[in-house]
Amino acid sequence: MNIGEVATQAGVPAKTIRYYESVGLIPAAARRGNGYRSYSQTDLHTLRFIHRARELGFSVAEIEDLLALWRNKRRKSQAVKAIALAKIAEIERKIAALETMKRTIRHLTAHCHGDARPDCPILDDLAGDGG
Amino acid sequence: MNIGEVATQAGVPAKTIRYYESVGLIPAAARRGNGYRSYSQTDLHTLRFIHRARELGFSVAEIEDLLALWRNKRRKSQAVKAIALAKIAEIERKIAALETMKRTIRHLTAHCHGDARPDCPILDDLAGDGG
DNA sequence: CCTTGACCTTCCAGTGACTGGAACCTTTAT
DNA sequence: ATAAAGGTTCCAGTCACTGGAAGGTCAAGG
User: Which three-class secondary structure string do you get for chain B?
Assistant: First the structure.
């Protein structure tokens, strides 16, 4: 497969695949006589793995670890589970931070008329007049 | 005030204040004879406004709009409220995406032994074997 | 007078994970 | 012959800083 086809099949832009290669997340692809990159089913499988992990919020660095574990038939499942649980904790922290932001902004908007008048407690509060 | 003091008072690193100036978020500060930047109470007030808005997840571009509205005594409060409500919607989208990630990862971990054995449904699922 | 240290200045480079675009080559179809 | 669609490389930009180098300024202490 050329890069375009594997990109379509894996759901990852061709440009991004070249980027993954450049940063060493995937090994350098084999080349055809014309210099085009050539991908196998295994490469496609790996790219799909990466795509799914990225969707789930894993960083490229974390995916490197995950890929090493995936390829290592002797890995311990606890190593994988630890990464997943840490990611859940991180997601929960992010959600909590966003909930706090949301509550605060909602609170600000609650007292703003939202009409043609200039009076706006949102700006006053952002300025620190109210906290 | 020198940049260090206004930085402490506003809760924004000096480096970040110079950055804000360089990207035009704040006007170029007045300079003393020795070339040091000099800040007024108004500048401090603006920096605090920016700090608080950043904490609440507003981008620098959005803060530019908010600052323009803040300075404009004839603004309509609906313009401010619209930005705030759009931000709430954006935060809600982010939270929903994170919740989906969390549910999926939690689901993956639920079937992984997490022990010394290599068998790991997390990796199998990431690879697409199960979805 | 000299030094030390804290503060200030500028500018350049790096972060994460791409993405856009230029300039060019190859293949396929018309 | 030519055009379109694919491929190649490399450089620059995104966002909001942050780190660091190399140097100027200021107040206090010996």
Answer: CCHHHHHHHHCCCHHHHHHHHHCCCCCCCEECCCCCEECCHHHHHHHHHHHHHHHCCCCHHHHHHHHHHHHCCCCCHHHHHHHHHHHHHHHHHHHHHHHHHHHHHHHHHHCCCCCCCCCCHHHHHHCCCCC
d(CA A9, CA B7): 51
Which helix or strand (DSSP H or E) is residue A7 part of?
A: helix A3-10
pLDDT value, residue A24: 93
Beta-bridged to residue A31, according to DSSP, are A37
3 state DSSP class of A80 = helix
Q: Is A122 on the interface with B (CB under 8 A)?
A: yes
Check if the beta carbon of residue A113 is closer than 8 Å to that of residue A119. yes
What phi, psi does B38 have (nearest 5°)?
-125, 130
- pLDDT score at B123: 86
B-contacting residues of A 10-49, CB under 8 Å? Answer: 45, 48-49
Nucleotides of D under 7 A from a protein CB: 6-9, 15-20, 25-26
- Which CATH architecture does the domain made up of B3-75 adopt? Orthogonal Bundle (1.10)
* Length of chain A (residues): 131
Give domain limits for chain B: 3-75, 92-131
- pLDDT per position as a tens digit, A95-110: 999 999 999 999 899 9
CATH of A1-75 among 1.10.1660.10, 3.10.20.310, 1.10.10.10, 2.60.120.10 = 1.10.1660.10
Q: Tens of pLDDT along B16-75?
A: 999 999 999 999 999 999 999 999 999 999 999 999 999 999 999 999 999 999 999 999
